[in-house]
Amino acid sequence: HYTHYAFDSAATLQSYVKEFAKQYANMCDHVIAPSDSLAATLRNRGVESNISVIPTGIDINRFKKGQGKEFRKKHSIDHDCFLVGHVGRLEKEKNVDFVAAVLADFLDSSDRCQALIVGDGQERSVFEELASKFENRVYVTGTLLGQELVNAYHSMDCFLFASQTETQGMVLVEAMATGTPVIVLDAPAIRDVVTDGFNGRLLNGMSRQDFTGALTELMDNEGNRQQRYIENCKRYANNLSLSQTTNEIVQVYESVLSSPVNSSKDPSALEAVINVGEQEIELWSAMISSLTASIAGE
Q1: pLDDT at 90
Q2: pLDDT above 80: residue 65
Q3: What is the helix (H) or strand (E) element at residue 53, kind and residue range?
Q4: Whole-prediction pTM value?
Q5: DSSP per residue over 84-110, as a string?
Q6: Rounded mean pLDDT of the chain?
Q7: Which of 108, 131, 147, 237 is close enough to 176 for a disulfide, judged by CB 3.0 to 4.6 Å?
Q8: CA-based angle 214:219:220, to the nearest 5?
Q9: How far apart are CA 36 and CA 42, in angstroms?
């Protein structure tokens, strides 16, 4: 999905990347995947190494407290509007055209709603055009960092996301950690994070009508339903704390190091250097064979 950054015609490169990633993973004693979807993709592509699914953790305490009201005031966002937010790189592979189209429909449907776009990229102009059309109702901030990013999340009433190329969807977890319900497109990795009706809406297919309907339903039912979403979002995010996921990763490393194959090895300094050299040769061989296979398959 990302090879267009290297070549305009990326079919051969895509084939090469898939084959090399498979061979690289099979050189490993153990592979860590951030989602069940990615682990399944690796298996389907021929990875035979042991795979553990451990999501990338976040600093929960960092996202718990934010100044959403102050953020709205600073950026001249109406204090009582229903604010739909989006955070991420503004690039084609993030499906930003669809996000912009949904926002346009939603903004057309109600004067109460507004939109906040946080991030930057080659497709930023898509949202700047939206801001020109809906003057004083669409806010494009560019990239935000640190507490300002946390404050942006806290200013949102919901988070809209439609990427189909995620390995985990970290921005979704960050949004949930602030208690922000999410409305997302069903896609690999995303469905591992969002449970429809629990911590937001997981919508099947790129129907603008379905997305605007979900946004409208959330806006019109801000009482008990939204509060339930908020609580469930925080509950889910708490399971992905840095301390918990770090402990799981450490356990994987300890397991690998204590395996019979590794525990029987006690290489000298010279043997260690030779081993590294052999691994480098194996890696280059994998690169060459992957490239050969991708060219032959054209």
Answers
A1: 96
A2: yes
A3: strand 50-53
A4: 0.82
A5: EEEES--SGGGTHHHHHHHHHHHHHH-
A6: 88
A7: 237
A8: 100
A9: 10
Continuous segment of H or E residues that includes residue 118: strand 113-118
Q: Report the C-alpha gap between 239 and 111 in whole angstroms.
A: 37
Q: How many residues does the chain have?
A: 298
Is residue 290 scored above 90 in pLDDT?
no
Q: CB within 8 A of 34, min separation 6: which ones? A: 53, 54, 55, 56, 167, 168, 189
- Put the strands of the sheet holding 82-87 in their side by side order: 138-142, 113-118, 82-87, 158-161, 182-185, 200-203
- Look at the block and give the residue holding tokens 């507490």: 147
Which two structure tokens, joined as six digits, stand for 74?
């600073």
Question: Judging by DSSP bridges, how do beta strands 138-142 and 182-185 pair with one another?
Answer: unpaired
C-alpha radius of gyration, the chain, whole number: 22
pLDDT in tens, 213-237: 999 999 988 667 788 899 999 999 9
Distance, in Å, from the CA atom of 278 to the CA atom of 194, rounded to the nearest integer, reads 43
Phi, psi of 282, rounded to the nearest 5 degrees: -60, -40
Q: How far is CA 55 from CA 38, 149, 169, 246, 295, in A?
A: 11, 21, 10, 10, 34
How many CB atoms sit inside 10 A of residue 15's CB? Answer: 19
Rounded Cα distance, 117 and 127, in Å: 8
Please measure the distance between the N-terminal and C-terminal CA atoms of the chain and give it in whole angstroms: 18
pLDDT: which is higher, 15 or 178: 178
Tell me the per-residue pLDDT of 83-124, one tens digit each, with 9 for 90 and over: 999 999 999 989 999 999 999 999 999 999 999 999 999 999
